[in-house]
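Listing S7. Sequence submitted for prediction.
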Amino acid sequence: MILHTVKYSPFSSFALKDCLKLLASDDKLLLMGDAVIAVSAIIDCQSELLQLHEQQRLFVLKADLQARALTAEYGRVIDYLDFVNLTVKCKSQLAW
């Protein structure tokens, strides 16, 4: 199980789309930095993100949402302690 972390906005980078193509069935996705915009706006890969949300494999960093005055429409909003725990649970991490 890999924790994929994406930090770039889906409007300025293909990182999120590329990441979604490579996610295995047990991998998890954490949106951080400008990538949190993805759960607050309508984007091309919204259906894939909603599917991850339903599978409880989509996480969003709370501090980055707050820094941008955004609200997550879906995904599990987590704090830094949850981020550390998620990192411990996963075998490895891949940053995008």
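Caption to Listing S7: primary sequence and predicted structure tokens for the chain studied. The longest strand covers residues 2-6. The CA atoms of residues 20 and 48 lie 7 Å apart.
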